[in-house]
Design goal:
The protein is of the alpha+beta class and about 550 residues long. The protein has 3 domains: about 80 residues, SH3 type barrels (Roll); about 140 residues; about 190 residues, MetI-like (MetI-like fold, Orthogonal Bundle), CATH 1.10.3720.10. It has 16 helices and 13 strands. The strands form 3 sheets. Strands 6, 7, 8, 9, 10 and 11 form a 6-stranded antiparallel β-sheet that branches. The protein has a 5-stranded antiparallel β-sheet with strand order 4-3-2-1-5. A two-stranded antiparallel ribbon has the order 12-13. Strand 7 and strand 8 form a beta hairpin. The longest helix is centred in the N-terminal third of the chain and has 48 residues.
Protein backbone atom coordinates (compact mmCIF):
# COMPACT_ATOMS: atom_id res chain seq x y z
CA UNK A 1 0.00 0.00 0.00
CA UNK A 2 2.75 2.46 0.99
CA UNK A 3 4.80 1.37 -2.03
CA UNK A 4 1.89 2.12 -4.34
CA UNK A 5 1.39 5.46 -2.62
CA UNK A 6 5.02 6.41 -3.29
CA UNK A 7 4.73 5.29 -6.90
CA UNK A 8 1.67 7.49 -7.37
CA UNK A 9 3.81 10.58 -6.75
CA UNK A 10 1.55 11.97 -4.01
CA UNK A 11 4.35 12.15 -1.37
CA UNK A 12 6.43 14.32 -3.64
CA UNK A 13 3.49 16.63 -4.23
CA UNK A 14 3.00 17.02 -0.47
CA UNK A 15 6.75 17.44 0.04
CA UNK A 16 6.87 20.21 -2.57
CA UNK A 17 3.84 21.91 -1.06
CA UNK A 18 5.40 21.71 2.40
CA UNK A 19 8.69 23.19 1.15
CA UNK A 20 6.84 26.06 -0.54
CA UNK A 21 4.83 26.68 2.65
CA UNK A 22 7.98 26.75 4.80
CA UNK A 23 9.66 29.17 2.40
CA UNK A 24 6.57 31.38 2.44
CA UNK A 25 6.50 31.37 6.25
CA UNK A 26 10.20 32.26 6.37
CA UNK A 27 9.70 35.18 3.99
CA UNK A 28 6.68 36.46 5.91
CA UNK A 29 8.54 36.06 9.20
CA UNK A 30 11.55 37.94 7.87
CA UNK A 31 9.38 40.79 6.62
CA UNK A 32 7.52 40.88 9.94
CA UNK A 33 10.83 41.08 11.85
CA UNK A 34 12.13 43.87 9.61
CA UNK A 35 8.85 45.79 9.89
CA UNK A 36 8.63 45.41 13.68
CA UNK A 37 12.24 46.51 14.25
CA UNK A 38 12.14 49.30 11.67
CA UNK A 39 8.68 50.84 11.97
CA UNK A 40 8.82 50.97 15.76
CA UNK A 41 11.61 53.52 15.51
CA UNK A 42 9.17 56.24 14.43
CA UNK A 43 6.81 55.85 17.39
CA UNK A 44 7.23 58.70 19.95
CA UNK A 45 8.10 56.61 23.01
CA UNK A 46 7.64 57.90 26.55
CA UNK A 47 10.64 59.52 28.23
CA UNK A 48 11.51 58.00 31.58
CA UNK A 49 13.29 59.73 34.45
CA UNK A 50 15.34 57.22 36.47
CA UNK A 51 16.71 57.91 39.94
CA UNK A 52 19.73 55.64 39.87
CA UNK A 53 22.34 54.54 42.40
CA UNK A 54 25.16 52.50 40.93
CA UNK A 55 27.19 49.75 42.63
CA UNK A 56 29.56 52.31 44.15
CA UNK A 57 26.66 54.09 45.83
CA UNK A 58 26.81 57.20 43.65
CA UNK A 59 23.35 58.64 42.99
CA UNK A 60 22.35 60.20 39.67
CA UNK A 61 19.38 61.06 37.51
CA UNK A 62 19.05 59.53 34.03
CA UNK A 63 16.56 60.72 31.42
CA UNK A 64 15.88 58.84 28.19
CA UNK A 65 13.94 56.25 26.19
CA UNK A 66 14.07 52.59 27.14
CA UNK A 67 14.88 50.90 23.84
CA UNK A 68 15.97 47.38 24.80
CA UNK A 69 16.39 44.85 27.61
CA UNK A 70 18.74 41.95 28.18
CA UNK A 71 19.46 39.35 30.85
CA UNK A 72 22.90 38.71 32.28
CA UNK A 73 23.50 35.34 33.90
CA UNK A 74 24.70 35.48 37.49
CA UNK A 75 28.23 34.44 36.46
CA UNK A 76 28.35 37.09 33.72
CA UNK A 77 27.11 39.77 36.11
CA UNK A 78 29.72 38.89 38.74
CA UNK A 79 32.45 38.83 36.08
CA UNK A 80 31.35 42.33 35.02
CA UNK A 81 31.70 43.55 38.61
CA UNK A 82 28.01 43.69 39.51
CA UNK A 83 26.60 42.45 42.78
CA UNK A 84 23.60 40.14 42.25
CA UNK A 85 21.01 40.90 44.89
CA UNK A 86 18.40 38.55 46.35
CA UNK A 87 20.22 35.47 45.00
CA UNK A 88 18.78 36.11 41.54
CA UNK A 89 19.93 33.85 38.71
CA UNK A 90 19.78 36.65 36.18
CA UNK A 91 20.45 40.36 36.23
CA UNK A 92 18.09 42.53 34.15
CA UNK A 93 19.71 45.46 32.42
CA UNK A 94 18.11 48.20 30.31
CA UNK A 95 19.44 50.01 27.26
CA UNK A 96 18.43 53.67 27.59
CA UNK A 97 18.75 56.21 24.82
CA UNK A 98 19.96 59.20 26.81
CA UNK A 99 20.84 61.38 23.81
CA UNK A 100 22.79 64.55 24.70
CA UNK A 101 25.84 63.23 22.85
CA UNK A 102 27.61 66.58 23.07
CA UNK A 103 27.48 66.33 26.88
CA UNK A 104 27.65 62.61 27.66
CA UNK A 105 29.78 61.52 24.70
CA UNK A 106 27.36 58.77 23.67
CA UNK A 107 23.64 58.39 22.86
CA UNK A 108 23.02 55.13 24.77
CA UNK A 109 23.74 53.73 28.20
CA UNK A 110 23.20 50.34 29.83
CA UNK A 111 21.81 50.52 33.36
CA UNK A 112 21.08 47.74 35.85
CA UNK A 113 17.46 47.35 36.90
CA UNK A 114 18.39 46.45 40.50
CA UNK A 115 20.13 49.81 40.99
CA UNK A 116 17.07 51.88 39.93
CA UNK A 117 15.63 53.61 42.98
CA UNK A 118 12.54 54.98 41.20
CA UNK A 119 11.26 55.79 37.74
CA UNK A 120 8.65 58.27 36.50
CA UNK A 121 7.40 59.88 33.27
CA UNK A 122 6.90 63.61 34.00
CA UNK A 123 4.92 65.54 31.41
CA UNK A 124 7.46 68.36 31.20
CA UNK A 125 10.26 66.19 29.76
CA UNK A 126 11.15 67.35 26.25
CA UNK A 127 12.66 65.58 23.24
CA UNK A 128 14.52 68.00 20.97
CA UNK A 129 15.61 66.68 17.57
CA UNK A 130 18.68 68.66 16.51
CA UNK A 131 20.45 69.04 13.19
CA UNK A 132 23.70 68.08 14.92
CA UNK A 133 24.57 65.88 17.93
CA UNK A 134 21.35 63.87 17.78
CA UNK A 135 18.44 64.19 20.23
CA UNK A 136 18.45 66.19 23.45
CA UNK A 137 16.45 64.95 26.45
CA UNK A 138 15.69 67.24 29.34
CA UNK A 139 13.50 70.14 30.40
CA UNK A 140 12.77 73.45 28.70
CA UNK A 141 13.49 76.44 30.93
CA UNK A 142 13.37 79.69 28.94
CA UNK A 143 13.16 81.14 25.45
CA UNK A 144 15.50 83.95 24.43
CA UNK A 145 15.42 86.44 21.59
CA UNK A 146 18.54 88.50 20.89
CA UNK A 147 19.88 87.37 24.26
CA UNK A 148 16.85 88.54 26.28
CA UNK A 149 14.42 86.16 27.98
CA UNK A 150 10.97 86.43 26.40
CA UNK A 151 9.26 83.42 28.00
CA UNK A 152 9.88 80.98 30.84
CA UNK A 153 8.09 78.27 32.72
CA UNK A 154 5.01 76.78 31.09
CA UNK A 155 4.71 79.76 28.73
CA UNK A 156 8.14 78.90 27.29
CA UNK A 157 6.81 75.74 25.62
CA UNK A 158 4.15 77.53 23.55
CA UNK A 159 6.51 80.38 22.69
CA UNK A 160 9.26 77.97 21.66
CA UNK A 161 6.89 76.10 19.34
CA UNK A 162 5.80 79.34 17.67
CA UNK A 163 9.37 80.56 17.22
CA UNK A 164 10.45 77.15 15.94
CA UNK A 165 7.70 77.13 13.30
CA UNK A 166 8.88 80.55 12.10
CA UNK A 167 12.52 79.42 12.02
CA UNK A 168 11.65 76.26 10.08
CA UNK A 169 9.93 78.37 7.43
CA UNK A 170 13.00 80.60 7.23
CA UNK A 171 15.26 77.55 7.04
CA UNK A 172 13.22 76.13 4.15
CA UNK A 173 13.46 79.48 2.36
CA UNK A 174 17.24 79.57 2.89
CA UNK A 175 17.60 76.02 1.55
CA UNK A 176 15.48 76.92 -1.47
CA UNK A 177 17.69 79.93 -2.24
CA UNK A 178 20.94 78.02 -1.69
CA UNK A 179 20.08 74.76 -3.43
CA UNK A 180 17.84 75.98 -6.24
CA UNK A 181 18.67 79.56 -7.16
CA UNK A 182 22.33 79.76 -6.15
CA UNK A 183 22.84 76.23 -7.45
CA UNK A 184 21.37 77.21 -10.82
CA UNK A 185 23.59 80.31 -11.03
CA UNK A 186 26.71 78.30 -10.18
CA UNK A 187 25.73 75.69 -12.76
CA UNK A 188 25.26 78.37 -15.44
CA UNK A 189 28.56 80.04 -14.56
CA UNK A 190 30.39 76.73 -14.86
CA UNK A 191 28.62 76.03 -18.15
CA UNK A 192 29.69 79.48 -19.37
CA UNK A 193 33.30 78.78 -18.38
CA UNK A 194 33.29 75.49 -20.28
CA UNK A 195 31.85 77.18 -23.38
CA UNK A 196 34.61 79.78 -23.21
CA UNK A 197 37.25 77.08 -22.87
CA UNK A 198 35.77 75.20 -25.87
CA UNK A 199 35.96 78.34 -28.01
CA UNK A 200 39.55 78.89 -26.94
CA UNK A 201 40.48 75.34 -27.96
CA UNK A 202 38.90 75.94 -31.37
CA UNK A 203 40.64 79.32 -31.75
CA UNK A 204 37.24 81.03 -32.00
CA UNK A 205 37.61 83.22 -28.91
CA UNK A 206 37.52 86.89 -30.00
CA UNK A 207 36.53 90.31 -28.71
CA UNK A 208 32.85 89.97 -29.59
CA UNK A 209 32.61 86.63 -27.76
CA UNK A 210 34.53 88.11 -24.83
CA UNK A 211 32.06 91.00 -24.52
CA UNK A 212 29.07 88.68 -24.89
CA UNK A 213 30.35 86.30 -22.21
CA UNK A 214 31.32 89.18 -19.91
CA UNK A 215 27.78 90.57 -20.13
CA UNK A 216 26.28 87.17 -19.28
CA UNK A 217 28.71 86.67 -16.41
CA UNK A 218 27.95 90.12 -15.04
CA UNK A 219 24.22 89.37 -15.11
CA UNK A 220 24.76 86.10 -13.21
CA UNK A 221 27.00 87.82 -10.67
CA UNK A 222 24.40 90.53 -10.06
CA UNK A 223 21.71 87.90 -9.48
CA UNK A 224 24.14 86.07 -7.19
CA UNK A 225 24.75 89.23 -5.18
CA UNK A 226 21.02 89.88 -4.75
CA UNK A 227 20.45 86.35 -3.46
CA UNK A 228 23.45 86.62 -1.13
CA UNK A 229 22.03 89.79 0.41
CA UNK A 230 18.67 88.11 0.91
CA UNK A 231 20.38 85.10 2.48
CA UNK A 232 22.26 87.39 4.87
CA UNK A 233 18.97 88.94 6.00
CA UNK A 234 17.34 85.55 6.48
CA UNK A 235 20.32 84.19 8.41
CA UNK A 236 20.20 87.21 10.70
CA UNK A 237 16.52 86.56 11.39
CA UNK A 238 16.96 82.84 11.97
CA UNK A 239 19.81 83.30 14.47
CA UNK A 240 17.96 85.64 16.80
CA UNK A 241 16.14 83.02 18.92
CA UNK A 242 17.42 80.32 21.25
CA UNK A 243 16.18 78.11 24.07
CA UNK A 244 17.71 77.29 27.44
CA UNK A 245 17.28 73.66 28.50
CA UNK A 246 18.41 71.58 31.47
CA UNK A 247 19.75 68.05 31.09
CA UNK A 248 19.32 65.26 33.65
CA UNK A 249 22.16 66.47 35.86
CA UNK A 250 20.74 70.00 36.00
CA UNK A 251 23.32 71.55 33.67
CA UNK A 252 21.81 74.38 31.61
CA UNK A 253 22.54 74.54 27.88
CA UNK A 254 21.61 77.12 25.28
CA UNK A 255 20.48 75.69 21.93
CA UNK A 256 19.92 78.04 18.94
CA UNK A 257 16.51 77.37 17.41
CA UNK A 258 18.00 77.31 13.91
CA UNK A 259 19.70 74.02 14.92
CA UNK A 260 16.43 72.43 16.05
CA UNK A 261 14.26 70.28 13.79
CA UNK A 262 11.47 69.35 16.17
CA UNK A 263 10.41 69.56 19.83
CA UNK A 264 7.84 67.25 21.41
CA UNK A 265 6.62 66.22 24.85
CA UNK A 266 5.77 62.55 24.31
CA UNK A 267 4.70 61.91 27.92
CA UNK A 268 1.75 64.29 27.65
CA UNK A 269 0.67 63.04 24.21
CA UNK A 270 -2.34 60.77 23.86
CA UNK A 271 -2.72 57.81 21.54
CA UNK A 272 -4.17 59.94 18.72
CA UNK A 273 -1.40 62.53 19.03
CA UNK A 274 1.26 59.84 19.00
CA UNK A 275 -0.32 58.19 15.96
CA UNK A 276 -0.28 61.49 14.08
CA UNK A 277 3.33 62.09 15.14
CA UNK A 278 4.21 58.56 13.99
CA UNK A 279 2.82 59.22 10.51
CA UNK A 280 4.66 62.56 10.36
CA UNK A 281 7.94 60.93 11.39
CA UNK A 282 7.62 58.21 8.78
CA UNK A 283 6.71 60.75 6.11
CA UNK A 284 9.78 62.81 6.96
CA UNK A 285 11.93 59.67 6.82
CA UNK A 286 10.97 58.98 3.21
CA UNK A 287 10.92 62.61 2.04
CA UNK A 288 13.94 64.32 3.65
CA UNK A 289 17.69 64.22 3.10
CA UNK A 290 19.96 62.34 5.52
CA UNK A 291 21.91 64.02 8.32
CA UNK A 292 24.56 63.09 10.86
CA UNK A 293 26.51 60.59 8.70
CA UNK A 294 23.19 59.09 7.49
CA UNK A 295 22.09 58.16 11.05
CA UNK A 296 19.49 60.94 11.21
CA UNK A 297 17.02 62.50 8.80
CA UNK A 298 15.49 60.79 5.78
CA UNK A 299 16.48 58.68 2.81
CA UNK A 300 14.70 60.33 -0.11
CA UNK A 301 17.85 60.66 -2.28
CA UNK A 302 18.48 56.91 -1.87
CA UNK A 303 14.90 56.05 -2.85
CA UNK A 304 15.07 58.37 -5.85
CA UNK A 305 18.45 57.02 -6.96
CA UNK A 306 17.32 53.39 -6.66
CA UNK A 307 14.13 53.90 -8.67
CA UNK A 308 15.88 56.04 -11.31
CA UNK A 309 18.69 53.52 -11.78
CA UNK A 310 16.27 50.58 -12.08
CA UNK A 311 14.12 52.42 -14.63
CA UNK A 312 17.16 53.32 -16.75
CA UNK A 313 18.41 49.74 -16.46
CA UNK A 314 15.04 48.43 -17.64
CA UNK A 315 15.00 50.79 -20.62
CA UNK A 316 18.47 49.57 -21.63
CA UNK A 317 18.23 45.84 -20.94
CA UNK A 318 14.78 45.18 -22.45
CA UNK A 319 15.54 46.01 -26.12
CA UNK A 320 19.00 44.43 -25.92
CA UNK A 321 17.67 41.23 -24.38
CA UNK A 322 14.72 40.99 -26.77
CA UNK A 323 16.88 41.58 -29.86
CA UNK A 324 19.39 38.95 -28.75
CA UNK A 325 16.62 36.42 -28.00
CA UNK A 326 14.86 37.09 -31.30
CA UNK A 327 18.07 36.55 -33.23
CA UNK A 328 18.89 33.30 -31.40
CA UNK A 329 15.37 31.89 -31.77
CA UNK A 330 14.11 33.27 -35.08
CA UNK A 331 17.12 34.03 -37.29
CA UNK A 332 20.24 32.18 -36.13
CA UNK A 333 20.93 28.78 -37.63
CA UNK A 334 20.42 26.20 -34.90
CA UNK A 335 23.73 24.43 -34.59
CA UNK A 336 26.92 24.10 -32.61
CA UNK A 337 27.68 27.83 -32.50
CA UNK A 338 24.17 28.70 -31.33
CA UNK A 339 24.36 26.10 -28.58
CA UNK A 340 27.70 27.55 -27.43
CA UNK A 341 26.17 31.04 -27.34
CA UNK A 342 23.25 29.80 -25.22
CA UNK A 343 25.64 28.06 -22.82
CA UNK A 344 27.65 31.28 -22.55
CA UNK A 345 24.49 33.29 -21.82
CA UNK A 346 23.45 30.84 -19.11
CA UNK A 347 26.94 30.94 -17.59
CA UNK A 348 26.87 34.74 -17.52
CA UNK A 349 23.90 34.54 -15.15
CA UNK A 350 26.16 32.83 -12.59
CA UNK A 351 29.07 35.29 -12.73
CA UNK A 352 29.55 37.10 -9.37
CA UNK A 353 28.15 40.62 -9.50
CA UNK A 354 31.40 42.22 -8.35
CA UNK A 355 33.02 40.98 -11.58
CA UNK A 356 30.46 43.02 -13.53
CA UNK A 357 31.38 46.00 -11.36
CA UNK A 358 35.07 45.63 -12.21
CA UNK A 359 34.20 45.28 -15.91
CA UNK A 360 31.93 48.35 -15.75
CA UNK A 361 34.66 50.39 -14.08
CA UNK A 362 37.31 49.31 -16.57
CA UNK A 363 35.31 49.36 -19.81
CA UNK A 364 32.38 51.72 -19.34
CA UNK A 365 34.01 54.31 -17.06
CA UNK A 366 37.68 54.38 -18.07
CA UNK A 367 37.57 53.30 -21.74
CA UNK A 368 34.13 54.40 -22.99
CA UNK A 369 33.68 57.34 -20.62
CA UNK A 370 37.25 58.52 -21.14
CA UNK A 371 36.80 58.38 -24.91
CA UNK A 372 33.58 60.40 -24.68
CA UNK A 373 35.39 63.04 -22.62
CA UNK A 374 38.22 63.29 -25.11
CA UNK A 375 35.87 63.54 -28.10
CA UNK A 376 33.02 65.69 -26.78
CA UNK A 377 34.21 67.37 -23.57
CA UNK A 378 37.86 68.38 -24.11
CA UNK A 379 37.16 71.75 -22.47
CA UNK A 380 36.45 70.05 -19.14
CA UNK A 381 39.89 68.41 -18.95
CA UNK A 382 41.45 67.37 -16.66
CA UNK A 383 38.18 67.05 -14.71
CA UNK A 384 36.19 64.05 -16.01
CA UNK A 385 32.58 64.29 -17.16
CA UNK A 386 31.64 60.77 -18.20
CA UNK A 387 35.07 59.33 -17.41
CA UNK A 388 34.05 58.89 -13.79
CA UNK A 389 31.48 56.62 -12.11
CA UNK A 390 27.92 57.85 -12.52
CA UNK A 391 24.27 56.98 -13.01
CA UNK A 392 24.59 55.96 -16.67
CA UNK A 393 27.47 53.56 -16.09
CA UNK A 394 25.75 52.01 -13.09
CA UNK A 395 22.61 51.43 -15.18
CA UNK A 396 24.62 49.94 -18.04
CA UNK A 397 26.53 47.65 -15.68
CA UNK A 398 23.33 46.32 -14.13
CA UNK A 399 21.79 45.99 -17.59
CA UNK A 400 24.71 43.77 -18.55
CA UNK A 401 24.31 41.82 -15.30
CA UNK A 402 20.60 41.13 -15.87
CA UNK A 403 20.81 40.64 -19.65
CA UNK A 404 20.96 36.80 -19.47
CA UNK A 405 17.72 36.73 -17.47
CA UNK A 406 15.84 38.73 -20.10
CA UNK A 407 17.32 36.69 -22.99
CA UNK A 408 16.36 33.34 -21.47
CA UNK A 409 12.83 34.47 -20.50
CA UNK A 410 12.20 35.98 -23.95
CA UNK A 411 13.47 32.86 -25.70
CA UNK A 412 11.12 30.73 -23.62
CA UNK A 413 8.23 32.98 -24.57
CA UNK A 414 9.09 32.85 -28.28
CA UNK A 415 9.34 29.06 -28.19
CA UNK A 416 5.77 28.80 -26.83
CA UNK A 417 4.25 30.67 -29.79
CA UNK A 418 2.61 28.02 -32.02
CA UNK A 419 4.24 27.55 -35.41
CA UNK A 420 0.81 27.72 -37.04
CA UNK A 421 0.50 31.42 -36.11
CA UNK A 422 3.73 32.25 -37.91
CA UNK A 423 2.69 30.19 -40.95
CA UNK A 424 -0.75 31.79 -41.03
CA UNK A 425 0.75 35.28 -41.01
CA UNK A 426 3.20 34.39 -43.78
CA UNK A 427 0.38 32.80 -45.81
CA UNK A 428 -1.55 36.06 -45.67
CA UNK A 429 1.35 37.87 -47.34
CA UNK A 430 3.20 39.30 -44.34
CA UNK A 431 6.98 39.27 -44.38
CA UNK A 432 8.97 37.55 -41.68
CA UNK A 433 9.82 40.88 -40.06
CA UNK A 434 6.15 41.95 -40.10
CA UNK A 435 5.10 38.60 -38.64
CA UNK A 436 7.66 38.98 -35.90
CA UNK A 437 6.80 42.60 -35.11
CA UNK A 438 3.00 42.45 -35.36
CA UNK A 439 2.24 38.93 -34.18
CA UNK A 440 5.02 37.00 -32.47
CA UNK A 441 6.51 39.69 -30.24
CA UNK A 442 3.13 40.95 -28.93
CA UNK A 443 2.18 37.38 -28.02
CA UNK A 444 5.57 36.87 -26.33
CA UNK A 445 5.31 40.14 -24.40
CA UNK A 446 4.14 38.45 -21.14
CA UNK A 447 7.33 36.37 -21.16
CA UNK A 448 9.37 39.52 -21.87
CA UNK A 449 7.73 41.20 -18.87
CA UNK A 450 8.52 38.12 -16.75
CA UNK A 451 12.18 38.50 -17.67
CA UNK A 452 12.02 42.21 -16.83
CA UNK A 453 10.45 41.44 -13.44
CA UNK A 454 13.27 39.03 -12.60
CA UNK A 455 15.83 41.58 -13.82
CA UNK A 456 14.36 44.35 -11.67
CA UNK A 457 14.23 42.10 -8.61
CA UNK A 458 17.92 41.28 -8.95
CA UNK A 459 19.18 44.72 -10.00
CA UNK A 460 17.40 46.69 -7.26
CA UNK A 461 19.15 44.76 -4.52
CA UNK A 462 22.67 44.70 -5.97
CA UNK A 463 25.30 46.68 -4.07
CA UNK A 464 28.78 45.32 -4.83
CA UNK A 465 29.05 46.44 -8.49
CA UNK A 466 27.44 49.81 -7.75
CA UNK A 467 30.17 50.66 -5.26
CA UNK A 468 32.56 50.77 -8.23
CA UNK A 469 30.43 52.47 -10.87
CA UNK A 470 28.49 55.33 -9.32
CA UNK A 471 27.00 54.93 -5.84
CA UNK A 472 28.23 57.22 -3.06
CA UNK A 473 27.57 57.63 0.64
CA UNK A 474 26.03 61.08 0.23
CA UNK A 475 25.22 62.71 -3.13
CA UNK A 476 25.30 66.53 -3.07
CA UNK A 477 22.57 66.81 -5.74
CA UNK A 478 19.99 64.56 -7.35
CA UNK A 479 20.53 63.34 -10.92
CA UNK A 480 17.29 65.11 -11.88
CA UNK A 481 16.92 68.87 -11.41
CA UNK A 482 15.80 72.05 -13.14
CA UNK A 483 19.07 72.68 -14.99
CA UNK A 484 19.40 71.69 -18.64
CA UNK A 485 19.54 68.82 -19.70
CA UNK A 486 17.54 68.10 -16.51
CA UNK A 487 18.55 64.41 -16.30
CA UNK A 488 22.29 64.33 -15.54
CA UNK A 489 23.48 60.82 -16.30
CA UNK A 490 27.06 61.67 -15.32
CA UNK A 491 26.23 62.39 -11.68
CA UNK A 492 26.80 60.02 -8.80
CA UNK A 493 23.77 58.92 -6.80
CA UNK A 494 22.61 57.24 -3.61
CA UNK A 495 21.15 53.75 -3.43
CA UNK A 496 19.06 52.03 -0.76
CA UNK A 497 21.21 48.89 -0.75
CA UNK A 498 24.44 50.82 -0.28
CA UNK A 499 22.73 53.04 2.29
CA UNK A 500 21.91 49.91 4.33
CA UNK A 501 25.53 48.77 4.11
CA UNK A 502 26.89 52.19 5.04
CA UNK A 503 24.55 52.80 7.99
CA UNK A 504 24.79 49.24 9.29
CA UNK A 505 28.52 48.64 8.99
CA UNK A 506 30.25 52.01 8.57
CA UNK A 507 28.31 54.12 11.04
CA UNK A 508 30.17 55.56 14.07
CA UNK A 509 26.95 55.24 16.11
CA UNK A 510 25.84 51.62 15.77
CA UNK A 511 22.96 51.63 18.26
CA UNK A 512 21.41 54.74 16.72
CA UNK A 513 21.78 53.34 13.22
CA UNK A 514 20.29 49.91 13.90
CA UNK A 515 16.59 50.90 13.61
CA UNK A 516 17.37 52.82 10.42
CA UNK A 517 18.92 49.69 8.91
CA UNK A 518 15.66 47.79 9.44
CA UNK A 519 13.52 50.69 8.22
CA UNK A 520 15.63 51.18 5.09
CA UNK A 521 15.59 47.43 4.40
CA UNK A 522 11.81 47.46 4.61
CA UNK A 523 11.64 50.39 2.19
CA UNK A 524 13.96 48.61 -0.24
CA UNK A 525 11.67 45.58 -0.18
CA UNK A 526 8.66 47.85 -0.70
CA UNK A 527 10.33 49.58 -3.66
CA UNK A 528 11.16 46.24 -5.29
CA UNK A 529 7.65 44.92 -4.64
CA UNK A 530 6.13 48.12 -6.06
CA UNK A 531 8.20 47.96 -9.25
CA UNK A 532 7.44 44.27 -9.65
CA UNK A 533 3.71 44.73 -9.05
CA UNK A 534 3.63 47.41 -11.73
CA UNK A 535 5.36 45.06 -14.18
CA UNK A 536 3.15 42.12 -13.15
CA UNK A 537 0.01 44.19 -13.79
CA UNK A 538 1.25 45.00 -17.31
CA UNK A 539 2.16 41.35 -17.91
CA UNK A 540 -1.24 40.07 -16.78
CA UNK A 541 -2.98 42.60 -19.00
CA UNK A 542 -0.92 41.48 -22.00
CA UNK A 543 -1.49 37.83 -21.17
CA UNK A 544 -5.27 38.28 -21.14
CA UNK A 545 -5.11 40.29 -24.35
CA UNK A 546 -3.32 37.57 -26.33
CA UNK A 547 -4.78 34.49 -24.62
CA UNK A 548 -7.42 34.07 -27.34
CA UNK A 549 -4.78 34.02 -30.09
CA UNK A 550 -2.78 31.36 -28.24
CA UNK A 551 -5.84 29.17 -28.01
Amino acid sequence: MIKAWFKSGSPWIWLTAGAVSINLLLVVGLLFLIAARGLGHFWPADIVEYHYQDKSGQASVIIGEEVDQSLLHEAQAIAAGHEVLNNAEYLLRLLVKTGNRDILGTDFRWIQDQYIQSRSTPDDLVVIERREWGNFYGRLLTVKQDGAVIAEGEQAWQTAQEKLATDLELFDEIEQLQDKQLGAINYNLEHLRLKQRALELKNQWNDSKRQEFAAQKLAYEQDYKVIQEKLAQLNKQIKCCSIVVAEAGGKQITIPLNRVVKMIRPNEMGLLDKSIEYIVNFGQFISEDPREANTEGGIFPAIFGTVMMVMLMAVIVTPLGVIAAVYLREYAKQGFVTRIIRIAVNNLAGVPSIVYGVFGLGFFVYILGGSIDRLFYPEAAPAPVFGTPGLMWASLTLALLTLPVVIVATEEGLSRIPKSIREGSLALGATKAETLWRTVLPMASPAIMTGLILAVARAAGEVAPLMLVGVVKLAPTLPLDGNFPYLHLDRKFMHLGFHIYDVGFQSPNVEAARPLVYATSLLLVMVIVGLNMFAIAIRNNLREKYRALEN
